[in-house]
């Protein structure tokens, strides 16, 4: 039996916490030694095991380190739940697309983001590829809700409320692009919980409901994207999945494409090549069924090319057929982009400018071993982004450095990467740091040279400062 929390972090469990006891015993520890290791009294530890006292959030990571398990496993010991069996675990089930179920699921996720005793769990969630299969089946074959209308207990919601959500997301997006996710993410999740969730629980007709679901999907997409930029991949996946569910409830296939594109990008980053290809193809199929405008098709086609190029790079034997497929997809993406804009373009396609397409094309060429073409694309993107989008500049500086390294031009590679260090320091983006560190790792064949040692020393000192 679980009762309401006691204010000390977690609920009282009247059946005790046998898994916590078992973990301690397996380590050959007494209650006194376990308590000493965590910096609490033996009385407190004994109460934890008996389920008489909650465990503060600050002690849970220490407990995970003490027993050598994941944070999720510690949560299971403390709260007594299994994945998917409790509201403490914010799974995203796309099966029920009714407004009531979707609103409940979204509000739970956003509320947990604001809960100090749960926030650390969300941040430590792993990326779960197996969940993607269920999401794709539900997205492709599930039936949208008959109506997005809702007669909730909250106030009447109108299109002006929806417009304010969209304007807020655009503002947050501009901040994210300029400064990185660390600065903007806390504001995004607070806005979701404090502003968007109450609106979703309100009273609205079908037209407003559809627009509201789309706007909420866009804002939770932003929460996912900023988590992704901070390397919180399970957390990001939860929000991207929630965006997909909101898009399904609002019967908005193009917003669903946007969510699937983000999941594709995340799978590429995590080198989940097969899932990245499947996600990109699902997005492309959705876009074609919706007769998506050319800019949407271009965005998806270049993502599919990128995912396929990753498979080529990862294969033990070069797959010429797949390499040709990448080239075909890139040609199709460029042709679609050249068709220009239409009055049906979603607002989010404005982020996908020509320089971004060129940058992603360059990454594909690098994965195929076409380093000169990759360097040219990256350098052109750096020039185009200039001072407008510092994070995009940094990414492409490092991509250019990787391409130069692939050509054996070590001096040029080091000089280009060195230019990216000041921007990296100014951003609050874990991805930017990881990208530079990955490049540093690629220098290993030249690790004994003076130039590489100096670069690595400079990089480490700057990132620590």
UniProtKB/TrEMBL annotation:
| Signal peptide positions on this chain | none
Q: Where is the HTH cro/C1-type domain?
A: 20-74
A GO molecular function for this record?
DNA binding
**Matching Pfam families:** HTH_31 (PF13560)
Query: What name goes with this protein?
Result: Helix-turn-helix domain-containing protein
Organism field: Streptosporangium canum
């Amino acid at each position: 039996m679980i009762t309401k929390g006691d204010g000390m972090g977690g609920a009282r469990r009247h059946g005790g916490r046998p898994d916590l006891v078992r973990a301690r015993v397996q380590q050959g520890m007494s209650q006194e030694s376990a308590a000493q290791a965590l910096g609490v009294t033996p009385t407190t530890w004994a109460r934890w095991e008996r389920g008489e006292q909650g465990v503060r959030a600050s002690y849970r990571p220490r407990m995970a380190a003490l027993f050598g398990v994941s944070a999720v496993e510690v949560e299971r010991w403390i709260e007594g739940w299994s994945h998917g069996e409790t509201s403490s675990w914010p799974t995203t089930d796309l099966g029920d697309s009714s407004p009531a179920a979707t609103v409940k699921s979204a509000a739970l996720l956003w509320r947990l983001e604001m809960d100090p005793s749960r926030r650390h769990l969300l941040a430590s969630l792993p990326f779960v590829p197996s969940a993607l299969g269920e999401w794709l089946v539900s997205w492709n074959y599930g039936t949208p809700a008959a109506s997005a209308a809702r007669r909730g207990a909250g106030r009447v919601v109108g299109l002006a409320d929806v417009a304010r959500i969209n304007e807020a997301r655009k503002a947050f997006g501009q901040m994210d692009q300029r400064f990185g996710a660390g600065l903007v993410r806390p504001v995004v999740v607070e806005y979701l919980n404090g502003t968007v969730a109450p609106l979703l629980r309100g009273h609205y007709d079908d037209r407003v409901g559809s627009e509201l679901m789309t706007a909420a999907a866009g804002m939770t997409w932003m929460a996912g994207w900023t988590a992704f930029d901070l390397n919180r991949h399970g957390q990001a996946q939860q929000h991207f999945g929630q965006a997909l569910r909101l898009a399904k409830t609002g019967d908005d296939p193009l917003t669903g494409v946007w969510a699937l594109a983000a999941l594709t990008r995340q799978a590429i980053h995590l080198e989940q090549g097969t899932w990245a290809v499947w996600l990109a193809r699902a997005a492309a199929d959705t876009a074609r069924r919706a007769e998506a405008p050319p800019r949407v098709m271009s965005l998806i086609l270049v993502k599919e090319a990128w995912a396929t190029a990753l498979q080529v790079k990862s294969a033990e034997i070069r797959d010429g057929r797949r390499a040709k497929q990448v080239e075909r997809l890139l040609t199709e993406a460029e042709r679609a982009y050249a068709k220009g804009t239409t009055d049906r373009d979603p607002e989010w396609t404005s982020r996908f400018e020509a320089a971004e397409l060129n940058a992603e094309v360059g990454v594909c060429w690098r994965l195929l071993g076409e380093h000169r073409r990759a360097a040219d694309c990256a350098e052109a993107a750096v020039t185009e982004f200039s001072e407008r989008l510092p994070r995009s500049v940094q990414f492409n500086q490092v991509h250019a450095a990787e391409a130069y390294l692939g050509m054996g031009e070590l001096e040029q590679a080091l000089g280009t990467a060195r230019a990216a260090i000041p921007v990296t320091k100014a951003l609050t983006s874990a991805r930017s740091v990881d990208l530079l560190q990955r490049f540093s790792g690629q220098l290993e064949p030249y690790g004994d040279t003076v130039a590489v040692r100096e670069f690595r020393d400079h990089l480490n000192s700057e990132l620590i400062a």
